[in-house]
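Checklist before submission:
- one chain only
- standard amino acids only
- sequence pasted in full

Submission:
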Amino acid sequence: MVKDNRKDTIKSINKRHISKDLGVLGEHKALLSDDELHVTYLPNDPRRQRNMTNKWDEFDYYNRDEDHFFIYIVKSDLTYHIKAGEKADDVDQFLKRKGLNKKQQKD
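Returned file contents:
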């Protein structure tokens, strides 16, 4: 009985961590337009691909860590991660123009 319970527990944990809806763990592409942020998770896997879009007025703030941006929607408990590479300063200015405030992470 203990062995069966252990198998069920492991299976349950794996199911939560390897869900098809957890595209954030895989490759993703972000498109920042004047109206919205559109993210495609797992763009190279049509069966598992997921798309999310939010208007800029839904976002609350963002954090920047070198060329990585974390954009937050507090009420939805949602965070987008964007790696901007050499365009990081352009993305930073774009987000400020969209009315988002930059918050520094506390150590």
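Reviewer check: Residues 8 and 14 are 10 Å apart (CA to CA).
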